[in-house]
Amino acid sequence: MPNRSLEEWLAVIETRHPNEIDLGLARVGQVWSSLKTQISTLSSPAFITVAGTNGKGSCVATMQAVLSAHGYSVGAFTSPHFLHYSERITINGVPASDAQIVTAFELIEDISGDISLTYFEFNALAALVIFCQQNLDAVLLEVGLGGELDAVNIIDADVAIVTSVDLDHQDWLGDTRSEIGRAKLGVARRNKPLLVGEPDLPHGFADRVVEIGADALFIGNDFRVLEDKNSSSFISHLVDDGLTQVIGPMNQCALLPENITLALQAVVSAGFSIDSDICCRAINSLSLIGRLQKVKYKGINVILDVAHNPAAARILRKNLPVVAGKTFAVASVLADKDWTGIVEQMAPSVDDWLIGQINDNQRALDARSLLKVVYTAQHKGRCYQSVENAFHQAIIEASSLDQVIVFGSFHTVSAVLRVMSKEG
Prior knowledge:
Blueprint: H1 6-16, H2 26-36, E1 46-51, H3 56-69, E2 74-77, E3 89-91, E4 94-95, H4 98-112, H5 119-132, E5 138-142, E6 159-162, H6 170-173, H7 177-184, E7 193-196, H8 205-212, E8 215-218, E9 224-228, E10 233-240, E11 243-251, H9 257-269, H10 276-284, E12 293-297, E13 300-304, H11 310-318, E14 327-331, H12 339-346, E15 352-356, H13 367-376, E16 381-384, H14 387-397, E17 403-407, H15 410-423
Parallel strand pairs: 1-5, 1-6, 2-5, 6-7, 7-8, 13-17, 14-15, 14-17, 15-16
Antiparallel strand pairs: 2-3, 3-4, 9-10, 10-11, 12-13
Helix pairs in contact: 2-4, 2-5, 3-9, 3-10, 4-5, 11-12
């Protein structure tokens, strides 16, 4: 049907495919093969694909900032979004227009015919269509889930990144770190650079890298980050054609130095020339929504973080500020998350749990079930009909000496961001 608005298109593609998640490249790959015959590509950009349990968004944001600061043109595909769908598809940091996205959706609809695509597959294809129509130097693709069977893997990456390997999405990727690591390594290609940010390699990971035949570089071995605890700064030591390139010192920020260093190494491995001073300026001014994001709302210190698995929760807790007052946790998760493990990681730093129901995703766990886990761990908590209600109550009870941390899901953080944007 012609003349759909972007909102109408999103409503259609959210419900069209029988399964929200349907991993596999056959359907989306077939449509992409047909699409490529219908679009004129203006350039041959370097494709960098980012997989990993945590840290993907940080890597993409860093690469985008650094490349843009050097004058390179960059397309970036990330997910999910916080407030506006167009956040997923950006060109030089600017979201694609509704008209660009709608035009891409119309072309995909026309080409796909009877082939059913998931919401994410439509997203990924639309991004690729839009990027092909731009004169870009680099395209950054964030994996949605896993790697090997994720829609973005229809692209043969010039550089692949695996940021970390930990337990998450076990229903789709497997119950062990070894199985999950194997899925994420699916983005690597023979004789192409593969950058690994996971320091504790799961069993069989290194053997699989050898089987793939990728030119692997491992953080802490081939390239590294050196932190200065006294000055809260760090230096990245990169490798470029066997030579060491030093970037820094850079200021510690909300993004982990390891992820920033991974991103810098990826840019160099993709063949881009970078300058230390330009990199430092770009990174020192870099911030990312929902990653240890600190804001003041109605006089209360609020920290927003999309930590949605125990590994991410551990990092969040490690980086929480020490406050004179209490720490209120506004949290909620989707059904495939290890909520017990998240609570275990966060509990030592939380005085009061306010669990809100996620109401915009059918995969959300029931807030009462989440609260039972908190009670079982012998912690204080309450549940609310929505994340928004939980956040409102936390702000009412908190004083200027306290802090409110919001975490557990992109949906949790998005709900609070909407509240603050409306009432700010």
